[in-house]
Design brief:
Elements (H helix, E strand, L loop, with lengths): L1 H4 L3 E2 L9 E2 L11 E12 L4 E7 L6 H7 L4 E6 L7 H10 L4 H20 L4 E10 L4 E3 L2 E4 L1
Antiparallel strand pairs: 1-2, 3-4, 3-6, 4-5, 6-7, 6-8
Helix pairs in contact: 3-4
Length: 147
């Protein structure tokens, strides 16, 4: 499978007809998934702030969720003078209905991803799906980032 995809172009609904080159393939262990969530970050041009979005509708086309049921996508904006805070992480975690252990895991993930987004000067970061395993842990299974 690796030989089949490395160096080839992957065409999806998010690319043009030429697709994007596959330069790296990440292999992850099998995971028993209890629930799929979505976590993403973009620069909101209107407010000029980093905005994190989260949804209980992970593992699907988030653009479709935004178009048909935008109320299912929760957002927090990071104050550029203060940087990311645990308050924002707690707000999203509560809206995602995470338990206390998962809230702690989410807070760590949120703060790490915020730092990564800023340090790498990204324009997009998506974790889809962000899963809750059958053991109750949060794990990032799919990731995409763009400069």
């Amino acid at each position: 499978m690796l030989r089949k995809w490395l160096g080839k172009n992957l065409v999806t609904y998010q690319t043009d007809d030429n697709g994007q080159p596959v330069n790296t393939i990440l292999v992850e262990e099998c995971t028993d998934i209890a629930e799929e969530l979505y976590l993403g970050a973009v620069i909101d041009r209107a407010s000029q702030r980093l905005v994190f979005m989260a949804s209980k509708e992970g593992g699907v086309n988030i653009e479709e969720v935004a178009a048909t049921t935008p109320e299912k996508i929760f957002q927090v904006a990071i104050d550029p003078l203060k940087g990311p805070s645990t308050n924002e992480a707690n707000e999203l975690a509560t809206k995602l209905e995470l338990n206390e252990i998962q809230k702690g895991q989410f807070k760590d993930l949120y703060l790490s991803l915020s730092k990564f987004f800023i340090e790498k000067d990204l324009s997009l970061l998506e974790i889809n799906p962000l899963v809750i395993t059958s053991e109750g842990d949060l794990i990032c299974l799919g990731c995409k980032n763009k400069h």
